[in-house]
């Protein structure tokens, strides 16, 4: 019955926290979401999700109606409410360093700890360098009035933007890093409805739980850079990385997911996580074990410059003064997130080289405009392609895949297209007289 459910708080209502709070409330828990950003809290209170995520606004409306979900800026209120407190604040890359910035995690733990006057569990979900939880445990014990009664656990989160609701409600697995049976039991209570689906669960210690997250993201990044490294070899040999990837994927030990060649990975997670992991490993004297992550990063960065090389080649060696239509700004489709977005990196570099760049994206235009007012933006693919010398597809939104080569041909000055994501049917475009180019394909 509901009486047996632990009461939850979620500290940090960004991408991860807002999704977690809303999903847990939808499962029947009483949830308080906290953020120090009063603006974010005001928006959530009025039923508005402050970022683009399919399905989340509808779920927020439903859970607000149920009365099980509240938002606050008060640590005192959050501490009084929660039996289990989830820490969901961001851990961005430090400016000028590869290390992870733990300012927000420390501030959240400090802010909460001051008001913890009874037995409760604090659960870290943020992505952190291994060893962080040991330090936070000490901090909690020292700062919380309830002292040893407050325990720390780690529960890494694997949700993908664009699939956040589904990934949260039906995760591939749950990982519980705990220091006691008591903590494990509290986590079981806090995830009961998800465990009841038969979700595989790994119960382990805290450092392992911290590591699982960065190990998973590093593997995914490595897989993407692996196929992009093969694309480089293909370019030098006249082979076709598209067929190569397809053939590899039929081996289900390899699998086709995260084996899409192209412009490479971006976003707020993969790039900064591999750098922070390499950095942390160096700090603790095992840098050699993951030095390959430096190479993974380098391969990924080269994708961006190679894409620009391809545009330049198509234009006969010159970007200066050329009209370039950029399709996509978000770091991936179904997202408005432009953090470390390969698309905008390419657009900005070409702009810096003197090209007349116009950008369109179905969801990320507002964010792009705010971050890079120097670029020009348009209202649709056809709009930015008007009189273009070349069209460059940078984010593989479904609406770009559906563009008819004949329709785009009507508006451009020259039928040239660079497919930065291997998203288009090369034959269909060539049949309409387009010069079609993609990295790693002849
Ligand atoms: C990633 C992980 O996939 C999640 O499991 C994890 O929870 C999350 O980071 C996180 O740490 O919070 P996300 O950043 O939302 O999720 O995006 P992904 O779907 O992983 O895509 C990352 C980047 O890789 C995108 O730029 C995408 O375009 C690129 N990508 C992906 C490729 O270039 N090729 C592929 O085959 C797949």
Task: Kindly describe this structure.
With 442 residues, this protein is α/β, with parallel strands linked by helices. It has two domains: 2-204, 3-Layer(aba) Sandwich (Rossmann fold); 219-437, Rossmann fold (3-Layer(aba) Sandwich). The protein has 19 helices and 14 strands. The protein has helices at 15-26, 38-45, 56-66, 75-81, 103-113, 132-143, 164-169, 181-190, 192-195, 206-237, 241-249, 270-283, 292-314, 342-352, 365-371, 381-385, 398-401, 405-409, 426-431, and strands at residues 8-11, 31-34, 69-72, 84-87, 120-124, 150-154, 174-177, 201-204, 323-327, 356-360, 376-377, 390-393, 416-419, 435-437. A six-stranded parallel β-sheet has the order 3-2-1-4-5-6, with helices on both faces. The chain has a six-stranded parallel β-sheet with strand order 11-10-9-12-13-14. The chain has a two-stranded parallel ribbon with strand order 7-8. Helix 19 links the parallel strand 13 and strand 14 (435-437). Helix 5 packs parallel to helix 6, helix 12 runs antiparallel to helix 13 (292-314) and helix 13 (292-314) packs across helix 14 (342-352). The longest helix has 32 residues, at 206-237. The chain is elongated, with a radius of gyration of 24 Å. The N and C termini lie far apart (62 Å). The mean pLDDT is 97. It binds uridine-5'-diphosphate-glucuronic acid. Residues 127, 157-161, 217, 220, 224, 258-260, 262, 264-267, 269-270, 331-332 line the site of uridine-5'-diphosphate-glucuronic acid. Its EC number is 1.1.1.22. Pathway: Nucleotide-sugar biosynthesis; UDP-alpha-D-glucuronate biosynthesis; UDP-alpha-D-glucuronate from UDP-alpha-D-glucose: step 1/1. InterPro entries: 6-PGluconate_DH-like_C_sf, NAD(P)-bd_dom_sf, UDP-Glc/GDP-Man, UDP-Glc/GDP-Man_DH_C, UDP-Glc/GDP-Man_DH_C_sf, UDP-Glc/GDP-Man_DH_dimer, UDP-Glc/GDP-Man_DH_N, UDPglc_DH_bac. It catalyses: UDP-alpha-D-glucose + 2 NAD(+) + H2O = UDP-alpha-D-glucuronate + 2 NADH + 3 H(+). This is UDP-glucose 6-dehydrogenase.
């Amino acid at each position: 019955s509901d009486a047996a459910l632990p009461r939850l708080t979620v500290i940090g209502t960004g991408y991860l926290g807002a999704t977690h709070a809303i999903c847990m409330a939808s499962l029947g828990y009483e949830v308080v979401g906290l953020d120090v950003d009063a603006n974010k809290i005001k928006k959530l209170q009025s039923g508005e999700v402050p970022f683009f995520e399919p399905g989340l606004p509808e779920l927020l409306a439903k859970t607000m109606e149920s009365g099980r979900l509240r938002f606050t800026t008060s640590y005192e209120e959050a501490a009084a409410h929660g039996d289990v407190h989830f820490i969901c604040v961001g851990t961005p890359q430090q400016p000028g360093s590869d290390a992870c910035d733990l300012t927000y995690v420390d501030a959240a733990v400090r802010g909460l700890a001051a008001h913890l006057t009874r037995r409760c569990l604090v659960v870290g979900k943020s992505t952190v360098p291994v060893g962080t939880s040991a330090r936070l445990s000490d901090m909690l014990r020292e700062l919380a009035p309830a002292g040893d009664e407050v325990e720390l656990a780690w529960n890494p989160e694997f949700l993908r933007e664009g699939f956040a609701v589904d990934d949260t409600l039906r995760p591939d697995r749950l990982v519980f890093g705990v220091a006691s049976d008591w903590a494990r039991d509290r986590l079981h209570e806090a995830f009961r409805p998800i465990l009841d689906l038969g979700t595989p669960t790994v119960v382990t210690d805290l450092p392992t739980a911290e590591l699982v997250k960065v190990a998973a993201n590093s593997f995914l990044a490595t897989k993407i850079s692996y196929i992009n490294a093969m694309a480089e070899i293909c370019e030098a040999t006249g082979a076709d990385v598209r067929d190569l990837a397809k053939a590899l994927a039929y081996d289900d030990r390899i699998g086709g997911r995260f084996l899409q060649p192209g412009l490479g990975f971006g976003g707020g997670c993969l790039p900064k996580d591999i750098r922070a992991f390499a950095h942390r490993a160096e700090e603790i004297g095992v840098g050699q074990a993951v030095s390959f992550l430096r190479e993974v990063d380098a391969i990924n960065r080269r994708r961006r410059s190679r894409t620009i090389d391809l545009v330049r080649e198509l234009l006969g060696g010159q970007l200066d003064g050329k009209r370039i239509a950029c399709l996509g700004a978000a770091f991936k489709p179904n997202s408005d997130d432009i953090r470390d977005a390969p698309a905008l990196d390419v657009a900005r570099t070409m702009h810096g080289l003197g090209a007349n760049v116009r950008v369109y994206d179905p969801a990320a235009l507002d964010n792009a405009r705010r971050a890079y007012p120097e670029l020009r933006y348009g209202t649709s693919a056809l709009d930015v392609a008007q009189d273009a010398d070349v069209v460059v597809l940078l984010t593989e939104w479904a609406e770009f895949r559906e563009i008819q080569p004949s329709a785009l041909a009507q508006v451009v000055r020259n039928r040239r297209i660079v497919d930065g994501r291997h998203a288009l049917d090369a034959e269909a475009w060539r049949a309409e007289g387009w010069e079609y180019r993609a990295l790693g394909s002849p």
